[in-house]
Amino acid sequence: MAEIHLIEKPITRAELKKIAEERFDGDLVKYKLYIKDLKKSWDKYSLEEQLANIGSEVGRAAKWQGKDQELFKGAKFRALELFDLTIDDPRWRRRLMEIGRVRELFCEAAEKGEIYGTTLKDLERYFLPFTLLARKFAN
Protein backbone atom coordinates (compact mmCIF):
# COMPACT_ATOMS: atom_id res chain seq x y z
CA MET A 1 0.00 0.00 0.00
CA ALA A 2 1.27 3.47 -0.86
CA GLU A 3 2.32 5.58 2.08
CA ILE A 4 0.19 8.70 2.54
CA HIS A 5 1.73 11.98 3.69
CA LEU A 6 -0.49 14.86 4.73
CA ILE A 7 0.62 18.29 3.62
CA GLU A 8 -0.56 20.65 6.34
CA LYS A 9 0.60 23.97 4.87
CA PRO A 10 0.65 25.39 1.35
CA ILE A 11 3.63 24.30 -0.75
CA THR A 12 5.15 25.67 -3.93
CA ARG A 13 5.04 23.98 -7.32
CA ALA A 14 8.77 23.30 -6.97
CA GLU A 15 8.19 21.50 -3.68
CA LEU A 16 5.38 19.48 -5.24
CA LYS A 17 7.60 18.57 -8.18
CA LYS A 18 10.34 17.42 -5.80
CA ILE A 19 7.87 15.21 -3.93
CA ALA A 20 6.66 13.72 -7.22
CA GLU A 21 10.21 13.01 -8.41
CA GLU A 22 11.03 11.26 -5.14
CA ARG A 23 7.91 9.08 -5.19
CA PHE A 24 7.47 8.11 -8.88
CA ASP A 25 9.58 6.19 -11.37
CA GLY A 26 10.58 7.10 -14.93
CA ASP A 27 7.11 6.33 -16.31
CA LEU A 28 6.01 9.67 -14.90
CA VAL A 29 7.61 11.43 -17.88
CA LYS A 30 5.47 9.52 -20.40
CA TYR A 31 2.46 10.09 -18.19
CA LYS A 32 3.05 13.85 -18.02
CA LEU A 33 3.25 14.05 -21.83
CA TYR A 34 -0.06 12.18 -22.13
CA ILE A 35 -1.72 14.56 -19.65
CA LYS A 36 -0.24 17.64 -21.33
CA ASP A 37 -1.89 16.60 -24.62
CA LEU A 38 -5.15 15.80 -22.86
CA LYS A 39 -5.28 19.19 -21.11
CA LYS A 40 -5.45 20.89 -24.51
CA SER A 41 -8.80 19.30 -25.32
CA TRP A 42 -10.35 18.41 -21.96
CA ASP A 43 -12.43 21.59 -21.77
CA LYS A 44 -14.08 20.69 -25.07
CA TYR A 45 -15.79 17.70 -23.43
CA SER A 46 -19.16 17.92 -21.71
CA LEU A 47 -19.40 16.99 -18.04
CA GLU A 48 -20.92 13.65 -19.05
CA GLU A 49 -17.98 12.94 -21.36
CA GLN A 50 -15.44 13.93 -18.73
CA LEU A 51 -17.07 11.72 -16.09
CA ALA A 52 -17.40 8.86 -18.59
CA ASN A 53 -13.65 9.05 -19.23
CA ILE A 54 -12.95 9.07 -15.51
CA GLY A 55 -15.27 6.06 -15.21
CA SER A 56 -13.23 4.20 -17.83
CA GLU A 57 -10.10 4.59 -15.73
CA VAL A 58 -11.99 3.65 -12.56
CA GLY A 59 -13.12 0.49 -14.38
CA ARG A 60 -9.54 -0.30 -15.40
CA ALA A 61 -8.38 0.24 -11.83
CA ALA A 62 -11.15 -2.09 -10.59
CA LYS A 63 -10.14 -4.72 -13.15
CA TRP A 64 -6.47 -4.72 -12.09
CA GLN A 65 -6.78 -4.10 -8.35
CA GLY A 66 -5.15 -7.03 -6.59
CA LYS A 67 -4.10 -8.64 -9.91
CA ASP A 68 -1.45 -6.46 -11.58
CA GLN A 69 -0.01 -3.68 -9.46
CA GLU A 70 1.57 -1.74 -12.36
CA LEU A 71 -1.59 -1.69 -14.48
CA PHE A 72 -3.63 -0.81 -11.40
CA LYS A 73 -1.27 2.02 -10.48
CA GLY A 74 -1.40 3.43 -14.02
CA ALA A 75 -5.20 3.43 -14.11
CA LYS A 76 -5.35 4.94 -10.64
CA PHE A 77 -3.05 7.83 -11.54
CA ARG A 78 -4.83 8.47 -14.86
CA ALA A 79 -8.19 8.57 -13.04
CA LEU A 80 -6.82 11.03 -10.48
CA GLU A 81 -5.44 13.27 -13.20
CA LEU A 82 -8.80 13.24 -15.01
CA PHE A 83 -10.56 14.05 -11.75
CA ASP A 84 -8.21 16.99 -11.29
CA LEU A 85 -8.72 18.24 -14.86
CA THR A 86 -12.48 18.10 -14.29
CA ILE A 87 -12.22 19.88 -10.95
CA ASP A 88 -10.10 22.59 -12.61
CA ASP A 89 -12.71 23.12 -15.35
CA PRO A 90 -14.43 26.41 -14.42
CA ARG A 91 -17.72 25.27 -15.99
CA TRP A 92 -18.32 22.83 -13.13
CA ARG A 93 -17.78 25.16 -10.17
CA ARG A 94 -21.26 24.37 -8.87
CA ARG A 95 -20.51 20.64 -9.06
CA LEU A 96 -17.18 20.75 -7.20
CA MET A 97 -18.53 19.23 -4.00
CA GLU A 98 -19.89 16.18 -5.81
CA ILE A 99 -16.83 15.72 -8.03
CA GLY A 100 -14.50 16.19 -5.06
CA ARG A 101 -16.45 13.70 -2.95
CA VAL A 102 -16.34 11.06 -5.69
CA ARG A 103 -12.60 11.66 -6.04
CA GLU A 104 -12.25 11.14 -2.28
CA LEU A 105 -14.26 7.91 -2.46
CA PHE A 106 -12.09 6.75 -5.36
CA CYS A 107 -8.87 7.41 -3.43
CA GLU A 108 -10.17 5.56 -0.42
CA ALA A 109 -11.51 2.62 -2.46
CA ALA A 110 -8.23 2.36 -4.35
CA GLU A 111 -6.41 1.89 -1.07
CA LYS A 112 -8.69 -0.49 0.86
CA GLY A 113 -12.18 0.94 1.23
CA GLU A 114 -12.18 0.51 4.99
CA ILE A 115 -13.40 4.00 5.92
CA TYR A 116 -16.48 4.35 3.70
CA GLY A 117 -16.86 0.76 2.58
CA THR A 118 -16.94 1.84 -1.06
CA THR A 119 -15.34 -0.38 -3.69
CA LEU A 120 -14.09 0.46 -7.15
CA LYS A 121 -16.93 -1.72 -8.49
CA ASP A 122 -19.40 0.53 -6.64
CA LEU A 123 -17.84 3.54 -8.32
CA GLU A 124 -18.04 1.85 -11.72
CA ARG A 125 -21.81 1.68 -11.21
CA TYR A 126 -21.83 5.40 -10.30
CA PHE A 127 -20.08 6.32 -13.55
CA LEU A 128 -22.13 4.06 -15.87
CA PRO A 129 -25.00 6.55 -16.44
CA PHE A 130 -22.46 9.19 -17.54
CA THR A 131 -21.04 6.77 -20.08
CA LEU A 132 -24.53 6.05 -21.42
CA LEU A 133 -25.33 9.78 -21.60
CA ALA A 134 -22.05 10.58 -23.35
CA ARG A 135 -22.75 7.89 -25.95
CA LYS A 136 -26.31 9.16 -26.44
CA PHE A 137 -25.14 12.74 -27.03
CA ALA A 138 -22.33 11.59 -29.35
CA ASN A 139 -24.80 9.99 -31.75
Describe what this molecule looks like in 3D.
Helices cover 72% and strands 0% of the residues. With 139 residues, it is an all-alpha fold. It has one domain. Helix 3 runs antiparallel to helix 6.
List key phrases describing it.
139 residues; 72% helix; 6 helices; mainly alpha
What is the succession of H and E elements? HHHHHH
- Unreliable residue stretches: 26-31
**Beta content:** under 5%
Q: What is the number of independent domains?
A: 1
Question: What's the helical proportion of residues?
Answer: over 70%
Secondary structure category: mainly alpha
Q: What about the largest sheet? A: none
Q: What would you call the shape?
A: globular
Give the N-terminus to C-terminus distance in angstroms.
42 Å
Radius of gyration: 15 Å
Number of helices: 6
**Can you count the beta strands?**
0
What is the averaged pLDDT score? 84
Entry summary:
The chain contains six helices and no strands.
Q: Can you lay out the helices and strands and say which pair or pack?
A:
Layout: H1 13-23, H2 27-42, H3 47-64, H4 69-88, H5 96-111, H6 120-138
